[in-house]
From TrEMBL:
InterPro entries: Pest_crys_Cry1Aa_dom-IV (IPR054544). Residues 167-227 form the Pesticidal crystal protein Cry1Aa domain. Residues 327-336 have a biased composition (Basic and acidic residues). This is Pesticidal crystal protein Cry1Aa domain-containing protein. Pfam families: Endotoxin_C2. Residues 249-310 have a biased composition (Low complexity). Keywords: Signal. The lineage of its organism: Bacteria, Bacillati, Bacillota, Bacilli, Bacillales. Residues 1-24 form the signal peptide. Residues 234-345 are annotated as: Disordered. The keyword Oxidoreductase does not apply.
């Protein structure tokens, strides 16, 4: 009897212990499961929180463009949160969510990098910087062109603006170089004119980069000074030539006037001879006498008498005198007894 009672107690104890163990095990299983659930929930909450931060970096739900205020600082902060998830185990759902977050974060990171690269192409005044790094920008554009075409299109316009400014600088530099005879910029080409200079100057004025514009303007000013001096020299030469031509014209006019006056003087001298009424006979008896008793004319009174009484002016020089022989013809009956005569020259 005592032996049966012992075995009964032993069985009950064993059953009790087993039941307790089973209960404890079940509780542990439940606890572990709950812990895992809570861990997954916590991980999920963390991933969701990170995803929300990533989403805020985009302007729209389709994640086509960056939001205003998206910065590298925000990118770096999210990157640290993601690094903390490395090495952890996730269920399939959380793993898929995390991959989506990583992909969105990767795109937004590249977008911010491209935006920073394009921004660094310009100074604070919107002018392209010296030695702009287009190679990195172009690589980033190629990387994002397929996944973020709308964003890339916006950035491409900005890059094209910078490249256009560089092109204008290169074009203006080339045109300025063509104004000089050598690479040392010491001598301006002699064939350069003001019109060509003005065209090049306008190209330089269109440059927005201060450094390039300042350097090219220095050379342009040198060309301007050269042209100003050249134009002044040409002006003076033209003025001297004009004055010389005017002086020559005055000289020719004076010479022509002197010749005309000489001809007039000669003609006047020839025409100063006394007039004749038809011949050279003195009928009034008052003909002038020379010291030798002959009539003398200080002017030129002789000429060729014709039967018609016309007088031909002699071709003698001024001052020539003529002598004639007087012949007394007697006393005139009809003129109060005055005598008359003739003179043969």
């Amino acid at each position: 009897m005592k032996k049966k009672k012992f075995w009964l107690i032993t069985v009950i104890a064993v059953v009790g212990i087993g039941a307790s163990s089973a209960i404890a095990y079940n509780q542990k299983v439940k606890a572990d499961k709950q812990a895992r659930i809570e861990a997954y929930q916590k991980q999920g909450a963390t991933i969701n929180k990170i995803q929300e931060k990533v989403n805020k970096l985009y302007r729209d739900k389709q994640k086509k463009l960056l939001a205003e205020g998206t910065s590298q600082e925000k990118i770096d902060a999210i990157k640290k949160d993601l690094e903390k998830q490395e090495g952890k185990k996730f269920n399939a759902d959380l793993a898929a969510k995390l991959n989506t977050t990583l992909m969105d974060f990767g795109h937004v990171t590249n977008m911010v990098e491209l935006q920073n690269l394009t921004k660094n192409l310009f100074d604070d005044k919107g002018a392209v910087v010296d030695n702009a790094r287009f190679d990195e920008v172009d690589k980033k554009i190629v990387k994002l062109k397929e996944v973020k075409p709308q964003f890339v299109a916006v950035q491409q316009k900005i890059v094209d603006n910078a490249k256009l400014q560089v092109k204008k600088i290169e074009e203006a530099t080339n045109k300025v170089n063509q104004l000089f005879a050598g690479a040392d910029y010491k001598e301006v080409k002699s064939e350069v004119n003001r019109g060509e200079f003005n065209k090049v100057k306008n190209l330089v004025n269109e440059i927005r980069q201060e450094k390039a514009k300042r350097n090219l303007s220095t050379l342009i000013n040198k060309v301007d000074q050269y042209l100003t001096e050249k134009e002044e020299a040409e002006r003076i030469a033209t003025e001297v030539q004009k004055q010389s031509q005017e002086a020559q014209s005055d000289t020719n006019s004076s010479s022509s006037g002197s010749h005309s006056n000489s001809s007039i003087s000669n003609n006047n001298t020839g025409s100063s001879l006394p007039k004749s009424s038809g011949n050279n006979n003195y009928q009034n008896g008052s003909s002038p006498k020379t010291s030798s008793g002959r009539s003398s004319n200080n002017g030129r009174t002789s000429g060729n008498n014709t039967s018609h009484g016309t007088w031909t002016p002699p071709q003698d020089k001024p001052g020539t005198t003529w002598e004639g022989e007087e012949t007394d013809k007697g006393q005139m009956d009809s003129d109060s007894g005055r005598t008359w005569g003739t003179i043969d020259w």
